[in-house]
Every structure is written in structure tokens, then in C-alpha cells.
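Long-time lurker. I teach an intro course on protein structure, and each term I like to show students one example going from raw sequence to a predicted 3D structure in C-alpha cell notation. This year I'd like something fresh instead of my usual example. Would anyone be willing to generate the C-alpha cells for the chain below so I can use it in lecture? Attribution to the forum is fine with me.
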Amino acid sequence: LAPWIPVVGLEIHAQISSNSKLFSGSQVQFAAPPNSLVSFFDASLPGTLPVLNRRCVEAAVMTGLALNCSINKKSLFDRKHYFYADLPAGYQITQQRVPIAVNGSLSYSLCIDNKMSQMVTKTVRIKQIQLEQDSGKSLHDDTRSQTLVDLNRAGVGLMEVVMEPDMCCGEEAAAAVRELQLILQTLGSSQAVMAEGQLRVDANVSVHHPGEPYGVRTEVKNINSMRFLAKAVDYEIQRQIEELENGGTILNETRAFDSKLGCTVPMRDKEGKQDYRFMPEPNLPPLILYDAKSLPANMNHQQVINIDWIHERLPDLPSVKREKLVEQYGILPEHSFTLLNEDGLAEFFETVVKQTQMKPKKVIGWILNDLLSYLKQHSLTVKESPVSSFLLADLLNLLEKKAISSTAAKQVLVELWKGEGKTPLEIVKEQKLELLQDQKELEQICQAVIDGQENE
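-- Reply from a regular --
Happy to contribute to a lecture. Here you go:
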């Protein structure tokens, strides 16, 4: 039999990093008391009107430019009708017909056979990026057999990034989303913390034989972890293949990923295409953007958004940062990926390099093998590290000056992890690590290193 070809496309909802919601002045805050951040418009009281948030538009334009999209100078808002308890208006304001950005691309890298030294770069096409409202949140109380509604999230600004079906496995999907997450965080357009629901992924999965049309697809909804995304996609691919090989058929349905069981489960079918009764949003005019050429003379810059102005202020994207790390410090490309994948680790590394005489290639070993492994073992972030960049630099200076041996440096690092506020020099004295001719010479060299003096 001809092999099966899996096809994976993604729809990603990223919460825009903004102080207020997309169409109201309500504050945006994670884990606030239920229904404490709800305006009259969020609750859909009669007579309330939407007012577009400038910050949200700028974030969408910035994201579109970073993903190589064409920015539409004229985009439109639409109403998408569906009825659910956490959507009080009975419709969502979105951009169905003419979104703010179209036709982009995202390059991402992944390992071959889980080997960091063997990486391949792939590209997924971006169909569009659209602005839309988030819905509220339904809280199910099984004990009392009731559902409570929290509208704090209702109306929060979202960017929906629609990726074309250019991927073929869970690893590719996870790698693409991780790269998108890094870009969003670099831009500041979204904090993209999946654990807080700021980045939610829907995966569309199908399989077919070579030369045949795409198979019937299923949609796995609201995946909130990179690891779960990879598992959900791979499971769904295998499930569909087994179903078809056993003579079954694939239903066009929505499924959820059960992380405890490690499988996808049915939620609802899509036998008939749902009629959302899209219509133009009557309370919002077309969104008009400008560039340097089209900007009218004597226009108040506070009342318009200039695409070129935003483009000029784009920061270095993760791919550029990796290239600079490799070029500036002579580290391996795979190490640059690790530095950027951990929040704050690249900054930690560069701070240590600036304050130590040790070569960056040696520093990276201590950062990845000792610091990062300890942090992962104790489920700590870089910002929560008991060993600061300054303490690690002091320790590496002692080692580079041959005041202590590598073995002794490991012992000192173990003491530093305790977070007792001691310096490497104090620990060396306390542990009586007599590794040179005598203790007096050791103390002199250690003090010289701390003082930043040369001592031959």
C-alpha cells in the first residue's frame, strides 16, 4: 500500500498584550476576581458601542510585518453569530472578509532524530492574521451540576494567526508554534504564556495517499501546551490511519486532547457546515492604515497608524538574534537555539561573558550543563535562579585564573545553589580548598580576581 501523507494546519489565537480590551476600556488582568473587569459593552447592555483600541491594531500590524505579511491598508470588521452562555451579545466581532494582514510566512527549525547538532529549517505559509474579541469563560461546577460564567475575558483583544496546511507531524507543529511564541514575545505584541491561555492552538489534521485529494479533516481544539500539541497531532494522525486501514471513515468533527489519557476525544460533529450568519459590523467603519507615501499632509499622527513607522521600529527577531550570538561569541548554532528558547537565558549568558575573562565557548558549557540542568531539575525559571549572573562570573573568573580547579568550582557551585548570599571567594575560604602552594597565595589570587586586577 502507498504510504499515508499527514497534513497539519494550525489556527492560533494570541492574546494581545494591552492594558484594556479590544473595544472597551475595561482592564485586562489574569486571575482577577470573577466578573470584576466587565464594562457595559462587555456585558452587551443595550445602547453600548465599540471603540477600537489603537494599541491592539499596532500589535497586529507589528506581528504581520514580522511574519512577512502584506498589511491591508483597508480592513473590515464582521459579526460572527453563535449562541453560548459566555458570549452575551450572541455574536463575536472579527475580521472574516478582509483581515488586517495576509500572505505571510514563518521559518522555523527542528531537530533530525532529536539531535540538536542536526537541524533543518522549514517554512509554513501564513494565510492571514485577523483581529477579534475573545469570549468569556464558563466555569463548570460538577458537584452542584451548574455552570457559572466569568466575563472578565469577554472582549479581550486577540490576533488569530491562520497557518496553511504545510506541516506533517506534531514535532513540526510544535516547532512552528514555539517560533511564533518567541516572535510575539520579542515584539511585545503578546506575552503568549500558554499556561494562562494567552496562546491557544487549534490543529486541523487529515491524511491521504500520494496523488489523492486531502482527506476529511478533524479539528483538535484549544491545545495549551507545546508538548500536548505534538502529542495530540501525532495521536490524531495515527488514529486516522488506523481507522481508514480498518475500513472505517473519518468524521468531520471537533475533538479535544485528553492530556491524562494521551488521546483525542470527540466533542461535537461538523456534519453540516455551521451557519455563523456573517454580516458587516454596522458600528465600526473600515479600518484605514497608511504608509509614508499615502499619509495625508497635516494629518494628526495620533489619529492614524503608519505602517512604515512601525516597520522601522521592529526589534531583532529570534532568527537574527541567533545569528548574532553565533557570530559574536563563536558558539554552536544549536546552543543559540537553547539560549533563546529559555526566557532570559540569553541575557544571563551575555552578562556572564561581559564580566568574566573566560572564553564564551567555555561559559556556554557552564550555562547549559550546570545552570540550566539545575533550573530544570528544580522547575525554576532563569529569573528565579539562586545563582545570579554576577556570582557565576566571579566563580568562572576564579577558575580561569586557576585559583581553583574545575572540581572545586563544582563544589562551590553546589554551595551557591543554597542561596545563602555567600560569594564564591567566601565559600572557597570556608571550604578550605587548598589547591595552590599555600592558603595565603590562594587568597591573594582570589582577591585579585574579585578586584579585577591582573596578577601574574
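Some talking points for your students: The first strand starts at residue 5 and ends at 15. Residues 425 and 447 are 8 Å apart (CA to CA).
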